[in-house]
Design a protein that fits this description.
Blueprint: E1 2-9, H1 19-27, E2 33-37, E3 54-58, H2 70-86, E4 92-96, E5 101-103, H3 108-120, E6 125-134, E7 139-141, E8 149-155, E9 161-163, E10 168-170, E11 175-187, H4 191-203, H5 211-223, E12 227-229, H6 239-244, E13 254-260, E14 273-274, E15 276-282, E16 298-299, H7 304-309, H8 328-338, E17 343-344
Parallel strand pairs: 1-2, 1-4, 2-3, 6-11, 13-15, 13-16
Antiparallel strand pairs: 4-8, 5-11, 6-7, 6-8, 7-12, 9-10, 14-17
Length: 345
């Protein structure tokens, strides 16, 4: 099996995209990355010199084409078509990342294994889990607007193509669903550049006449965003960026954490690192001393009474009807994050 990467980019510096981190994570997995690089005026191309396995495809964006973000799929397909001309064997796959999406290094092997499984089971695309970070590197958005998983790997020996605003692909036959995660950072960046980026993106979807209407709608959607805490480790390539934006890389340690449940009932490799000086495992929430604030205890598998007295806001999946349930491992981690407890696995 041969893996190659492809993507699109334009004015990455101007709009503060994490494009260097994104391309680094992709290049670590694949043999070569094909990048449709739009006509930038901010020195973006010079920032790509650190990648040795990058093939740049210079393009010019037709900014008159402003309906439905179609220009994004057009640019994506430029990269895909170029890649497909060079590599179209039965064992050749393309992995697609947008310039604000990053793979976690702990998932690299899983990405490769799952694409191999897709190949062996007759699948022609692979969909990955998404973590959409919202206004902070420690909040993930989960409401219906946000796609819970998406296709990001395609067989090159096929007629599969990007379409619409390049969120996904079409003309595929069978999807393999991977538990590997894509960290999406499109809504975490310097405030002024974020504002410019949102204005620029909306112009790719709507005419000047329609812009005010959709700007109001976008603001309304933003205000309705539902989030959960995230206190896990981000991809290592994101460390400098996260600290540059003034956020913590690692959470502060708790003095004492009570965990209600049995170690054998939690689907996390033991030992795992919880950011606490003292861990206390108990079988029931009522074994936690009242003066230690039972509301801060992590309840892994609550019974009906415990659910009623100490409810959790962690759902079984993202709110979209398309969402597949989180596995027990990730849902357990979310319960730690809910209490602002960091966990490293």
């Amino acid at each position: 099996m041969n893996l190659f990467g492809f993507g699109l980019l334009r004015n990455g510096v101007k709009y503060d995209y994490c494009f260097q981190e994104s391309l680094q994570s992709l290049s670590d997995i694949v043999e070569e990355v094909y990048l449709a690089l739009g006509d930038s005026d901010d020195g973006t191309e010079e920032k790509l010199n650190f990648l040795k396995n990058l093939k740049i495809l210079p393009t010019v964006w037709n900014l008159e084409n402003r309906e439905g973000g179609i220009i994004l799929s057009e640019q994506t397909n430029i990269a895909l078509d170029s890649l497909r001309k060079d590599h179209h064997g039965e064992q050749d796959w393309g992995i697609y990342l947008q310039c604000d999406e990053v793979f976690h290094e702990s998932d690299y092997d899983l990405v490769k294994r799952d694409i191999q499984k897709a190949q062996e089971t007759g699948c022609d695309v692979v969909a990955f889990r998404y973590l959409h970070f919202w206004q902070s590197h420690h909040k993930i958005a989960i409401n219906k607007k946000w796609y819970p998983q998406e296709i990001r790997a395609v067989k090159l020996d096929s007629k599969i193509e990007s379409w619409g605003d390049a969120q996904s692909f079409r003309h595929y036959e069978k999807v393999y669903y991977s538990e590997a995660r894509i960290f999406h950072y499109g809504h975490v960046r310097e405030e002024d550049k974020y504002k410019d980026k949102k204005e620029s993106i909306l112009k790719l979807y709507h005419s000047d006449k329609k812009l005010p209407k959709y700007q109001r709608r976008e603001k309304r959607f933003d205000n309705q965003t539902e989030t959960l805490n995230f206190w896990g480790l981000h991809p290592a390539v994101m460390k400098n960026r996260i600290e540059r934006l003034g956020e913590k890389w690692l959470p502060e340690k708790k003095e004492k954490v009570y965990i209600v449940g049995k170690k054998e009932e939690i689907d996390i490799d033991i030992p795992f690192k919880i950011y606490a000086n003292h861990l206390v495992w108990v079988k029931s929430i009522f074994e936690v001393p009242k003066n230690d604030r039972r509301t801060n205890a992590v309840i892994l598998k609550p019974d009906l009474i415990t659910k009623f007295i100490y409810p959790s806001n962690i759902p079984d999946a993202m709110r979209s009807k398309l969402a597949k349930p989180w596995n027990l491992r990730f849902k357990s981690l979310l319960k730690f994050y809910e209490k602002d407890i960091g966990v490293e696995v």
